[in-house]
Amino acid sequence: MNSKTVHTELIKTEAKRLGFLSCGVSKAEFLEEEAPRLEKWLNQNMHGEMQYMENHFDKRLDPTKLVEGSKSVISLLLNYYPSNEQNIDSYKISKYAYGTDYHFVIKDKLKDLLQFIQEEIGAVHGRAFVDSAPVLDKAWAAKSGLGWIGKHSNLLTQQVGSFYFIAELIIDLELDYDAPVTDHCGTCTACIDACPTDAIVEPYVVDGSKCISYFTIELKNEIPNEFHGKFDDWMFGCDVCQDVCPWNRFSKKHSEPLFNPTPELLSMTKKDWEEITEDVFKKIFKKSAVKRTKFSGLQRNINFLKP
């Protein structure tokens, strides 16, 4: 085996040991197919008030502009599918936010992986990315053969569906590159039909400014009244398009203790949420991604859900 193959196998084996679901590698180069798609999406204002999506257009499409001398993008998936879900009589939180904020959990694993690469292979330079820099996570994961981008614009795999986080290491080491997999959505339109706000405007295109996740997390102003009664009780994020996807029948329970929710989160009823105090909010969401919306934001969302 040549050194590229040996290094690639080493990295993938360590990624598995660290708890990642899967690991794929692609060449660090300009994302030609994504460029016109991203430009069109931005020109149609589908990013709503997410101004940051307009920034660093070149860096979003070219990892060599983010990490000097980069040769490879290592894409990694980390499962977050929970073993227990919230009380049926509850306002809902997206499953990814049940436990400790994924940014911290994954960043630590990525640092460990980069350190391993440097110890085992030598002077390799790179950066870790978890959904916090201008990197098109899903495009890289698809290019690296980890799945295909479904009609709901999430990454999908035949083996475990779509309930996982995507992260990257961009490094200046040449590796063996994986090939993309084929699309297996077929004629299915379950996600398009089920979206409560009709945010999936056509197969593979989501108007972010109509998405419940956007309204409940990203939007800082008041939620437009025209969407009243269409939120299906989601107060932070939304999983509808994933919940109805046939491929998620194959979701497997995660094994990351940090993603387990507090018992209070699972047992709270709508009445409990409506009466939540700031102290309870801080206790339940101490290390959670829900802190992004702040207590006032969550209250705004809950009030919007009331009949």
TrEMBL record:
Pfam family, one: QueG_DUF1730
Keyword Plastid: no
MF GO annotations: 4 iron, 4 sulfur cluster binding; cobalamin binding; epoxyqueuosine reductase activity; metal ion binding
UniProt keyword annotation of Zinc present: no
Enzyme Commission no: 1.17.99.6
Domain 4Fe-4S ferredoxin-type: 173-205
Top-level taxon in the UniProt lineage: Bacteria
Active site: 131
Annotated keywords: 4Fe-4S, Cobalamin, Cobalt, Cytoplasm, Iron, Iron-sulfur, Metal-binding, Oxidoreductase, Queuosine biosynthesis, tRNA processing
UniProt cross-references to InterPro entries, sorted A to Z: 4Fe4S_Fe-S-bd (IPR017896), 4Fe4S_Fe_S_CS (IPR017900), QueG (IPR004453), QueG_DUF1730 (IPR013542)
GO cellular component: cytoplasm
Catalytic activity: epoxyqueuosine(34) in tRNA + AH2 = queuosine(34) in tRNA + A + H2O
Residue numbers binding [4Fe-4S] cluster 1: 185, 188, 191, 245
Amino acids binding [4Fe-4S] cluster 2: 195, 211, 238, 241
Residues engaged in binding tRNA: 220
Protein localization: Cytoplasm
GO biological process: tRNA queuosine(34) biosynthetic process
Function description: Catalyzes the conversion of epoxyqueuosine (oQ) to queuosine (Q), which is a hypermodified base found in the wobble positions of tRNA(Asp), tRNA(Asn), tRNA(His) and tRNA(Tyr).
Annotated family: Belongs to the QueG family.
Protein name, UniProt field: Epoxyqueuosine reductase
